Every structure is written in C-alpha cells, then in structure tokens.
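User: quick one - fold this with biotin bound?
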Amino acid sequence: MLKKYKGAKKIRLAEVGSTNACAKEYAEKGAEEGTVIEAKRQTDGRGRLGRSFFSGGGGAYFTVILRPRLSAEASLLITAAAAVAVAEAIEKISGKEAKIKWVNDIYIDEKKVCGILAEGKLSAEGRLDYAVLGIGVNLSEPEGGFPRELEGIAGAIFEKGKEIQAEAVIEAIYDRFFEIYENIEERAFMQEYRRRSFLKGKTVSFKKEKTEHTALVVGIDDSARLILDEDGKQFTLEAGEVSVKWRE
Ligand code: BTN
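Assistant: Sure. Structure tokens for the protein plus biotin:
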C-alpha cells in the first residue's frame, strides 16, 4: 500500500444498506481520501443506472472515499482505473483471466463477477468535492445460487465451498487502485484496459436518443470512450450500456 494511504480509516460492518450511501455520509463529515467502508452484506446494494446490486453474502462489498484533484473529464477515468485494478487483482488471486466489459463490469468465463459504481459530488466551482468508488465482487456463488434474474449472467471468482478471505481481495484491489490513481492523468493504464476488453470486435446493440442501434466495437479511446462503427460511420459513446448481439 502506498505510504500516503496507510493510515486511512477502515470501517468494517457486518451489514449496511449500501456502502456507497454510508461512504457519502462519512465524506460529508470530512473523511479523508483512502477511507474505506466494507460490509459482509448489503440490504440495499446499488448498481448503475438505478439498478440494485445483489449483495446477499459471499462477496466483497466496499467503497473507497476519494478527493480527486482532477478535471471533470479526467475524473471519468476513475471507474476505468478501478476496472483495471479489479481485473488485475482478481486474476492474480484466482488464476482466471478477467475481462472488462465497457464501462466497468468485470467478466470471468463470460459471467459478470464484479460491478463498480462511482458517484461524485460537485463543488460550487464545478470541481469534484469528493467521489465514492463502490466495488462489489462475487467471491463465491451464494448458497442456493444467485437470484433467478441473474441466472446465466452473474458468476463468482471461486468455486463453491472454497474458503475465501474477502479482506485479502479488498486489500489487493485497494493497493492496485491507488498505484494507478497516483498517475491517473497519464492514462498509462488505458493500454491494459484495452487489452482486457470483452467487447472489442463484437457487435453490440444500444439505445441512443431513444433509437435502437447496432454497431461493431472497434476499440476504446484514451478517455475510456467506446469507439463504434455503424455501417461504416465511426462514433464514440461516453457512457451508458451496450448489449452483445449473439449471432447464429
Ligand atoms: C453495477 O454493476 O451496476 C455496479 C454495482 C456496484 C456494487 C457495489 S457493492 C459496494 C458498493 N455499494 C453499493 O451499494 N454499490 C457498490
């Protein structure tokens, strides 16, 4: 761990609504950068695009408080940096290849094993006052399996029955993230982000301005935007979600 974050506070909870919501309360009260809130279970785990995130146990659920001195554009890189940190850390621990599905879902063997939700608060000057970076990793499949709506979509990094230390996984991700974060604006990690792309070369569908589109994923640029080709016309997507179109 970088010296700077060694003294940062760790708050470990058995259960909480959402570690992101909890981290925001700490951030509002002035908690320093690097403070981390961990929970064994969440009763109101939150995902991107207003969705919920299954957090019923068997996972590592945690949120890190950041106080980035970054331009608004560069702050978009935080989730991409976190995705690289998670992919590298869990690959090292599990020995399984981890891919990144743009923007920031982590896949092993075609199943989503981790979700990342970064939320920020802007100051009156339009800069980030703070950001909370929430990460949820499915360590093992829950007893009785994932909820029905996640069947075939969600996966875990370890086989059933293996004893897993959530703490070790959190620490490995935390340490790697802060190494990258130190020089985030140099964007060197984007090369690794691209190398791990789950989508490159795939045909995807997505909605833009209420219209359904189908396009080929050409790559990802240095600002973590998805580069697409739709009928020979190239354009980029900066946020949102795309679905892989499986062809017969
Ligand atoms: C997604 O897949 O849409 C993002 C999921 C992010 C889940 C994590 S778990 C820890 C933190 N607390 C939350 O409520 N959400 C994030």
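One thing worth noting: The chain has a mean pLDDT of 92.
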